[in-house]
Amino acid sequence: MNLLIIYVLNIALDRDSSDIDPKSKRTDLEVLYKPSDYVNEQENLGNDEVIPSLPSLLVPKQADLMEEIKRISKNFNIWDMIKLFVHRPSEYKDAFVKEIEASFHSIYFGEISIIMRKFGLPPNPYFYAINSVLFSKENLDAFHLKYCFNVRSIIREILCTKSQRQLKKINEIFIEESRGGLLALVPNDRSVYKREFINQLLTVQRSTSMYFDINDSFLMDFKLYTDHNYYKKNKEKFIRIFATASYYQIRKICHEYQKRFNKTLPSSISKGRDSFLKKCAKTICEYAINSHKYYAKLLRKAASHRDMQRIIRIVTSRSEIDLTTIFREYRNMYSFQYIKSIENAFFDHIEIYTDIILPLLGLEKGTRL
């Protein structure tokens, strides 16, 4: 099976570009009118410091689903389908694949399904990139959790930035397709607090409150971050704050902490033993303060380490939400060296960069960052 999958991938990539229907090269593209609804509604609520979220996905003004299926299926090549999908919203892609499954069984089962979420496949960037374009929303997050090499950082990102409703759905998908839910991905140790924290994220609805009282003894207990012994004795309180307080309230806590101590709360949380629980709290703080800068920092880290998977994840998961805004922050925050490093990360897999990353960033094919 693995050899067959690799064969299909190689055939797709070796195909000469002259085989592609020139009509598939659309020039009448516009920014996605309706951003994806797969967003945490609270992430920037009440945050005046954040600029509006803008998706980067460019889509045609008109697209005929059945006509495109007919054209693609004539001489099917999965890479051609992926190049089409980087200019289509998630609902369109889902409908496209469902129709292929219903009407073109040999194509679906012979060339598409054999590549989708297959365990045991040797590390292959094209497999990862193809699936990252095929899937969307909760299914995409579940895929990344199953196949990303650096799963610890991915699970922190997903646990700390998704709503309880979204996490519940991701957990259901994960349970259905593999043994155990999201808890099974957490490093296996005896930490009761770690499991309790994740359990609260999965089962307790985070507050939506935009009320903040500077004299609130529960939320404003700064000893949790300045006194390690106090933190150890009050981990339950620490968990309740970061698992249930609204992002608005956490943002206010961060601002008040910086005013009082002249340093950021994430930097104070990181002091001492940087446990999974503390890393999650730090992630929640950074995300609550400014979600766009949070993802821009992730993108910089991925680019500087030439982490293709992480770049693919950020680009594919945020293109229908706010990737234009994230990339603007990225360019404002970092030098050209870091911008260029996105391209450099794909030096040995340039097709992924030109056919997936650039289009999803909203840039024309052949453009360089």
UniProtKB/TrEMBL annotation:
<dbReference type="GO" id="GO:0005886">
    <property type="term" value="C:plasma membrane"/>
</dbReference>
<comment type="similarity">
    <text>Belongs to the annexin family.</text>
</comment>
<dbReference type="GO" id="GO:0012506">
    <property type="term" value="C:vesicle membrane"/>
</dbReference>
<dbReference type="GO" id="GO:0005737">
    <property type="term" value="C:cytoplasm"/>
</dbReference>
<dbReference type="GO" id="GO:0005544">
    <property type="term" value="F:calcium-dependent phospholipid binding"/>
</dbReference>
<protein>
    <submittedName>
        <fullName>Annexin A8</fullName>
    </submittedName>
</protein>
<dbReference type="Pfam" id="PF00191">
    <property type="entry name" value="Annexin"/>
</dbReference>
<dbReference type="GO" id="GO:0005634">
    <property type="term" value="C:nucleus"/>
</dbReference>
<dbReference type="GO" id="GO:0005509">
    <property type="term" value="F:calcium ion binding"/>
</dbReference>
<dbReference type="GO" id="GO:0001786">
    <property type="term" value="F:phosphatidylserine binding"/>
</dbReference>
<dbReference type="InterPro" id="IPR018502">
    <property type="entry name" value="Annexin_repeat"/>
</dbReference>
<dbReference type="InterPro" id="IPR037104">
    <property type="entry name" value="Annexin_sf"/>
</dbReference>
<keyword id="KW-0041">Annexin</keyword>
<keyword id="KW-0677">Repeat</keyword>
